[in-house]
Amino acid sequence: MRKEEDSIFYGIDKLTVFIYVILVFMGWLNIYAAVYNEEHKNIFDTTQKYGMQLVWIGSAFFIATVILIIDAGFYTVFSYFFYGFLLLACIAVPYLGREVKGSRSWFRFGSFGIQPAEFMKFATNLALAKYLSNVNIEVELSRKNRFIDLIKNYKNTIYAVIILSLPLLIIKILQDETGLALVFIAFIITLYREGLSVNFLIVGLLSTLLFVLSLVIASNTLITLLAVIACLAFLFIKRSLKHFIIVSLIFASASGVVLATNYVYDHLEPHQKTRIDVLLGRGTVNLKKEGYNVNQAKIAIGSGGFFGKGYLQGTQTKYDFVPEQDTDFIFCTVGEEWGFVGTSSVIMLELFLIIRVIMMAERQRSPFSRIYGYGVASVLFFHLAINVGMTIGLVPVIGIPLPFFSYGGSSLWSFTILLFIFIKLDANRLVILR
Distance (Å, rounded) from C-alpha 403 to C-alpha 387? Predict the structure, then answer.
């Protein structure tokens, strides 16, 4: 019994590891199908993407093992170090890195490339968990003074948002990686689990609605409509100076969102405007230009029917009609070759992993482990929802990978590190109880 407890695999959630392995190997087989050709049939050929992906998979398993060997306390102690180091790497890469597909966000070492922004996700999750776990302790100690507690909660929300905003702004502004930058919004789910007021959610949803309306309705018309609503609100609520100020501030803020949305839209790159227009159905979509990617993706998924065309029988992917079919649009390969059954299986596996992570997070004794677990689930869910959504035309094409499925070393490594740190933290829960 003692030997089992001393093993690095003691307490490891085997079901989570099993789902991870299944997803990784399913992804590898679909990468092979996505870039398959008659001249290179050897699935172990490292001159091809599927051969290189096998190298990434082997190295990812090695990284996972190292993570399990290291003491769980290491990740708590060095949380801020990882965050600061990778922030500096994200700042440096536009100046020292090489340009790939129009974005200078990669460090190149010969034929090997690494994207710091991918690893920023696990570092931000560690930093957020570290900060909020310290806050949990402070709040418990200050329960006797409710006024102090409220002040700290207000400040804590601001500090937490700063932790999330720094990588988002750096990655978007310096690297122009919109997809990777938006991933950090997913951590809002973690903040709600830790007590963020529902009022922020309401404000966020209303702001999103106003943002969309600003793109559909002329700004003058929309601001006039907001002014009418403000007047009606003032007439039907208690008429006092306090309520007049509140209504006026809400109207001013809403008008500011409308004007800011139009300003940002006017200063977007042409291709970014086009993606938004395609999503909103504004104007005529040219299926040979701006609508090409999504149209081909829909054709590929739709042509698969219920059971699919069969493995390696996909014509849309085989003849390169679908762009980025081994990375951002790999879900199309699943849809064409495995049909509704295949796509449903992949989505259910991904969702099962997310649900499993949430269940593990809820059983944690440590606030740090619980918060980190919810961060893992939030990131995985965001990637899944956006990746699948953009392949079927529900969200703009922003280019983010399907977790454990898409081709790429940086992507697979970052997701592996993100998940296995939590698996180690969860296992440490049993070590503490011994």
Answer: 9
Instruction: Find the distance separating the first CA and the last CA of the chain, reported in whole Å.
Output: 12
Residues in Cβ contact with 336 at an 8 Å cutoff, skipping those fewer than 6 apart: 300, 301, 303, 304, 308, 309, 314, 315, 316, 317
Nearest to 100 by CA among 84, 91, 111: 111
Q: Are 86 and 121 in contact (CB under 8 A)?
A: no
Is 142 within the bounds of a domain? yes
Which residues make Cβ contacts (< 8 Å) with residue 329, sequence separation at least 6? 293, 297, 322, 323, 391
φ and ψ of 107, to 5 deg: -90, 130
Residues with Cβ within 8 Å of 210's Cβ and at least 6 positions away in sequence, in order, are 254, 257, 258, 261
The pLDDT tens digits of the residues spanning 58-99 come to 999 999 999 999 988 899 999 999 999 999 999 988 888 777
Kindly state whether residue 374 falls inside one of the protein's structural domains.
yes
Contact 97, 104 (CB under 8 A): yes
Count CB-CB contacts under 10 A for residue 295. Answer: 18
Considering the domain boundaries, does residue 145 fall inside one? yes
- Could you please report the per-residue DSSP string of 308-322? -S-TT--HHHHTT-S
**Residues with Cβ < 8 Å from 427, sequence gap 6 or more?**
10, 11, 12, 13, 68, 72
Could you read off the pLDDT of 291-305 as tens digits, one per residue? 677 778 888 888 888
Q: Which long-range contacts (CB under 8 A, 24 or more apart) does 284-292 make?
A: 292/323
Q: Write out the two tokens for 108.
A: 């190149």
Q: What is the pTM of this model?
A: 0.84
Residue 74 is predicted with a pLDDT of 93
Apex 236 CA angle, 230 and 239, nearest 5: 85
| Number of domains the chain contains | 1
- The span from the CA of 200 to the CA of 197, in Å, is 6
Q: What is the DSSP string of 20-48?
A: HHHHHHHHHHHHHHHT-BTTB--TT-TTS
Map tokens 């402070």 to a residue. Answer: 138
Structural domain includes residue 72: yes
Which residues of the chain have a pLDDT value below 50? 1, 141, 146-151
Residue recorded with tokens 């499925």: 405
Domain that holds residue 156: 2-196+367-433
Q: How far apart are CA 241 and CA 245, in angstroms?
A: 6
Rg (alpha carbons) of the chain, rounded to whole number:
24
